[in-house]
């Protein structure tokens, strides 16, 4: 009986372990391996070049540009959906009329794929007949015909807005769940002790939403690190690398310039950044768990 | 310090009537305990006084002022919750000084008053800790501290000791009694534990199905219950109830052949219920007995012995409180006598007819 249970365990584990090994572990180690080569992605012959690719990273101005854009992208992609999601959750939780309907409407974009979201916002940003310029024309009386996605000054910001539009619904739902988990008697203490709405929100509600905030931020970090598809659809990293993030830069170097070795080195650096961020996240999670249990 | 008056207070949630026309007044500095079974409406009544729920009808006055439509913070009340309701992210000092911080008092004054309150409640060494690092008793002290620091007119306690273990409950009960003596503030305390009610209260309000059954001092309620519900609820173990029935003109105890005419010579009704507390059931000689019984279970509690007896007069066992040295054993046949002067008679609707 025990022996057959053991076989079943092995059999049931075999498939997920194989999938994990083939699609995660093997590419991970391969990237690390290829980052020390000059492989172009096609030719079976390649040479070991040591730390050349990593040395190139240090001197690569486009890499530095991608790091700066990634930091901007990540900060905005974390802060905007978190702040907007919190604001919407507090508003809906205050029993505003039609709250349930708004909740569904705000959540809807997260159900769409990044490609669809990207396409919707490409239309919104379209210079001649896009919704944004049309609204500006209606308000100001002057049609700007501004190409939001084609100008270096506004390309990244425009994608960030589209990204936030999609991600805010998810943050909002997590914050709403966090709000319902705040014990009612704590809010009643606020009522008895005479806290106004601002004091209650600042001193009690937002700190008590810390566990929800940790989840929202963690998801935002992970999603923003993975945020490649919407950038690819909307700008492709351009114009003039103005919306080039590390993920975009890695893609361009690997699959457009066929510098697979260099692209792998960028991916290793990106992996280390992600690892650091996740380590910080787990440390914070432990601290939050100690307080809120 | 203020008195509290409820005038014809009622509360309903939709069709469900929770509180039905309650009239009640608590004097300055009185310790009032609301007691009753789960779901009787005692906590709802407390929430109406606090202002956390709005009355459906009637008036609430605190210190002579009509507070019925005022917000909780405007009523001058403080409340201690069963769950302690401490903010997990704030330290003990911040929890105690919460109300003062909201009132935007100077930091130095808050610090000084927090220290003073912590000293009274003996938590001054815990001021920097978070609630998670405290025991149940310490948490409840901090919750009380948050209440007393504002010098409220009235303290409201909603089953504050229910989450504590038995030993700690006794200790905290003493602390609350001591605190009341020290502060002299009017206190309303909700509990389903009648021991807490008996030991703490100046007066007990017994509530059942949203109505006040009786108001009185603990001893008054114990000795002269207004009805069968109060008689059964107050006292532990509970009062014994024996049905009285009349057959061919004679009065009998339940279905037994034990006549009750000698026991209750003035009882002339058709049906009623006799009530007698376990400590008023005694062993007696056969010729003096009111009832014959067989010992079923004997519980030796050290300070006393609880004896549960089978009788023909009752479907449930009759309880007798015997001295600790009692040698009664299961299966033994005994003669029992009810102590005169402590026998209660209730009519078929439960109202007390007489106590003799």
Write structural notes for this entry.
The complex is a heterodimer of chains A (293) and B (356). The relative contact order of chain A is 0.13. Chain A has one domain: MetI-like (MetI-like fold), CATH 1.10.3720.10. By secondary structure, chain A is an all-alpha fold. The longest helix of chain A is centred in the first third of the chain and has 33 residues, at 2-34. Helices cover 75% and strands 0% of the residues of chain A. Chain B has 356 residues and is α+β, with helices and mostly antiparallel strands. Chain B has 2 domains: 4-233, Rossmann fold (3-Layer(aba) Sandwich), CATH 3.40.50.300; 240-355, Beta Barrel (OB fold (Dihydrolipoamide Acetyltransferase, E2P)). A 6-stranded mixed sheet of chain B has the order 6-7-8-3-9-10, sandwiched between helices. Chain B has a 5-stranded antiparallel sheet with strand order 12-11-13-19-20. Chain A binds chain B through residues 183, 185-186, 188-189, 191-195, 199, 203-204, 207-208, 210, 290-293, and chain B through 50-52, 71-74, 77-79, 81, 83, 85, 87-89, 98-99, 101-103, 130, 132, 146, 150.
Write the layout of secondary structure elements.
The complex is a heterodimer of chains A (293) and B (356).
Chain A: H1 2-34, H2 52-59, H3 61-93, H4 99-107, H5 114-125, H6 131-140, H7 155-180, H8 184-193, H9 197-208, H10 210-226, H11 229-234, H12 246-256, H13 260-292
Chain B: E1 4-13, E2 16-26, E3 31-35, H1 42-50, E4 57-62, E5 65-66, E6 77-80, H2 92-96, H3 98-102, H4 107-120, H5 136-148, E7 154-158, H6 166-183, E8 186-191, H7 194-200, E9 203-208, E10 211-216, H8 218-223, H9 228-233, E11 240-247, E12 250-253, E13 271-276, E14 281-283, E15 291-300, E16 305-310, E17 318-322, E18 333-338, E19 344-346, E20 352-355
Parallel strand pairs in B: 3-8, 3-9, 6-7, 7-8
Antiparallel strand pairs in B: 1-2, 1-4, 4-5, 9-10, 11-12, 11-13, 13-19, 14-18, 15-16, 15-18, 16-17, 19-20
């Amino acid at each position: 009986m025990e022996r057959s249970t053991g076989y079943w365990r092995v059999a049931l584990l075999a498939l997920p372990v194989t999938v994990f090994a083939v699609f995660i572990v093997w590419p991970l180690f391969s990237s690390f391996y290829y980052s020390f080569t000059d492989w172009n992605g096609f030719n079976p012959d390649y040479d070991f070049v040591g730390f050349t690719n990593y040395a190139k990273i240090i001197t690569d101005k486009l890499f530095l540009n991608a790091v700066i854009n990634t930091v901007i992208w990540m900060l905005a992609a974390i802060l905007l959906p978190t702040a907007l999601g919190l604001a919407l959750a507090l508003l809906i939780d205050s029993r505003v009329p039609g709250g349930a309907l708004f909740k569904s409407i705000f959540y809807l974009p997260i159900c769409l794929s990044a490609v669809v979201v990207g396409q919707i916002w490409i239309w919104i940003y379209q210079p001649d007949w896009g919704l944004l310029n049309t609204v500006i024309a209606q308000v100001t009386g002057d049609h700007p015909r501004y190409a939001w996605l084609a100008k270096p000054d506004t390309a990244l910001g425009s994608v960030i807005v589209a990204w936030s539009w999609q991600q805010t619904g998810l943050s909002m739902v997590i914050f709403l769940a966090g709000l319902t988990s705040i014990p009612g008697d704590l809010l009643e203490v606020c009522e008895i002790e005479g806290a106004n709405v601002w004091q209650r929100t600042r001193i009690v509600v937002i700190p008590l939403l810390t566990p929800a905030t940790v989840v929202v931020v963690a998801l935002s970090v992970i999603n923003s690190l993975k945020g490649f598809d919407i950038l690819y659809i909307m700008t492709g990293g351009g114009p003039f690398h103005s919306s080039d993030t590390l993920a975009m830069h890695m893609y361009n170097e690997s699959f457009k310039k066929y510098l697979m070795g260099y692209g792998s080195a960028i991916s290793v650096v990106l992996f280390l950044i992600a690892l650091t961020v996740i380590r910080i996240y787990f440390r914070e999670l432990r601290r939050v768990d100690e307080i809120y249990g | 310090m203020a008195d509290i008056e409820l005038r014809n207070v009622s509360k309903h949630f939709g069709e469900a009537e929770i509180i039905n026309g309650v009239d009640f007044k608590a004097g300055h500095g009185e310790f009032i305990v609301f007691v009753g079974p789960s779901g009787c409406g005692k906590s709802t009544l407390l929430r109406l006084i606090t202002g956390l729920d709005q009355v459906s009808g009637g008036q609430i006055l605190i210190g002579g002022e009509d507070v019925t439509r005022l917000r909780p913070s405007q009523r001058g009340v403080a409340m201690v919750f069963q769950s302690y309701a401490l903010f997990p992210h704030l330290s003990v000092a911040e929890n105690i000084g919460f109300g003062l911080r909201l009132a935007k008092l100077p930091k130095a004054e808050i610090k000084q008053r927090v220290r003073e309150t912590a000293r009274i409640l003996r938590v001054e060494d815990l001021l920097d800790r978070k609630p998670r690092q405290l025991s149940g008793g310490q948490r409840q002290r901090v919750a009380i501290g948050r209440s007393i620091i504002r010098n409220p007119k009235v303290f409201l306690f909603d089953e504050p000791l229910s989450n504590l273990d038995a030993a700690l409950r006794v200790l905290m009960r003493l602390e609350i009694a001591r605190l009341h003596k020290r502060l002299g503030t009017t206190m309303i305390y909700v509990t389903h534990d009648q021991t807490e009610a008996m030991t703490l209260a100046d007066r007990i309000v017994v509530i059942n199905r949203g109505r006040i059954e009786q108001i009185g001092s603990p001893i008054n309620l114990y000795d002269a219950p207004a009805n069968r519900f109060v008689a059964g609820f107050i006292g532990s173990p509970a009062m014994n109830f024996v049905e009285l029935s009349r057959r061919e003109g004679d009065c009998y105890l339940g279905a037994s052949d034990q006549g009750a005419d000698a026991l209750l010579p003035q009882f002339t009704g058709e049906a009623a219920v006799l009530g007698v507390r376990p400590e008023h059931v005694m062993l007696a000689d056969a010729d003096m007995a009111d009832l014959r019984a067989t010992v079923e279970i004997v519980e030796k509690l050290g300070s006393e012995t609880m004896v549960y007896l089978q009788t023909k007069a009752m479907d449930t066992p009759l309880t007798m409180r015997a001295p600790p040295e009692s040698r009664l054993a299961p299966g033994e046949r005994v003669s029992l006598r009810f102590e005169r002067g402590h026998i209660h008679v209730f009519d078929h609707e439960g109202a007390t007819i007489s106590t003799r």
